[in-house]
What we know:
7-stranded parallel β-sheet, elongated, Alpha/beta knot, 7 strands, 2 domains, alpha/beta, single chain
Amino acid sequence: MPEINDSNRELFARYSFEQKEQLYQAAAELFSQNKRDLFDRLVLNRTRHICVVLEDIFQAHNASAVLRSCDCFGVQDIHVVENRNHYAPNSDVSMGSDKWVDYYKHPSIVQTYDELRARGYRIVATLPHENDTLITELDISQPVALVFGTELTGLTEEAISHADGYVKVPMYGFTESFNISVCAALSLFCLTEKMRSDPSIGWRLSPEEQITLKLYWAMQVIRDGRNVMDHLRESLFGK
Length: 239
């Protein structure tokens, strides 16, 4: 089954929290207790307080490495802007991480920013400029969308000018910038650790978001998961 994307994002939208729980319990009978325990543990560390935006990444292995880092640090949402370059995850690099995260595609950076702001995010562009805020000092009291550009040219002027703030990862060598996947990994490690250590930040998914996410995860581990889930839904709730 593909990543959680626009083709299946509303699959469970019409069901109540109780119905989703009922559906998950039925689905969970079809895979191991070890997997059920793993889902229960990992979903508690998933967050949408921080998300990642990738602008027009032309090297699939770099974008796939960012997806892998997002999964590793519990960041659930990745937004990819495809101005010129189409992106599909590279399984050799992502190591299957695209199956566990929510993956959004957008046609323009401004539209992406508008959608994220409507959800309460502050847009923060990652740049190597001298006067930008250090990643260790970034205010994450409100949800933050971290924006990364291509390795060749960086972020477009449009992405920079429409951002709400700017952040940099400190460097002390001759090289002027990190590889994008390295920069994303360092940034996400720093910010997710800061987020989890701050009791004033409500960073966890809501109970309904958690059960919905576990339903998507269940489809990944059940053979022919999408069809099986459709049959379970029909048997429990009708068409």
